[in-house]
Design a protein that fits this description.
171 residues, alpha/beta, six-stranded mixed sheet, 6 helices, 6 strands, 26% strand, globular
Length: 171
């Protein structure tokens, strides 16, 4: 009995950790355009976006840089309805669930692109993410994560939802 409880407790803590650290990700109604998304987010966002040598050029050549930066600045600004329109998944939850799920996301301080790889119409980026604990203002956490992007038929890039709490949820 104790082992089952420990398993469920461990699973719940892992799920909460993933939620707190990254919020979430998913497919949604079409967003007007990457440029519209980029201009809708304030350029004064405190989020710092950096690139290791050569990675900024790689994203620019893929025509992903503007959308990538707009996505993460939108996330940092906690504009969940706009972010929802930049997501891709086989099955997205509704906007209300998506917004509530992201409500406790840790504030993003910095994202650095360490590597980018393209395979057909998908890009996989390796990121270093620095976050701030929402309850302890001085406490920060750094982590590495894979960030996936899918090029839509119309050429736009959409962020691929990899969070199991959002991908494939049935309505």
């Amino acid at each position: 009995m104790k082992q089952i409880f420990r398993f469920h407790l461990c699973w719940a803590l892992c799920a909460l950790s993933a939620l707190a650290v990254t919020g979430c990700s998913t497919t949604a109604p079409a967003v007007p355009s990457a440029n519209a998304a980029a201009t809708a987010v304030s350029a004064t966002s405190p989020l710092v976006i950096g690139y290791t040598e050569g990675q900024e050029q790689v994203l620019a050549e893929l025509k992903l840089k503007t959308t990538f930066e707009a996505y993460w600045r939108t996330h940092a600004a906690k504009n969940w309805p706009q972010l929802f329109g930049m997501e891709h998944a086989e099955q997205l939850p509704n906007l209300e669930f998506y917004t509530a799920y992201h409500a406790k996301a840790w504030p993003l301080l910095e994202i650095q692109v360490l590597d980018a790889a393209l395979e057909e119409q998908q890009a996989t980026l390796t990121l270093r993410v620095r976050l701030q604990s929402p309850d302890k203002k001085g406490r920060e956490h750094s982590m590495h994560r894979k960030d996936r992007w899918q090029r839509a038929e119309d050429g736009r890039w959409l962020h691929v939802v990899t969070d199991p709490m959002l991908a494939g949820i049935k309505q």
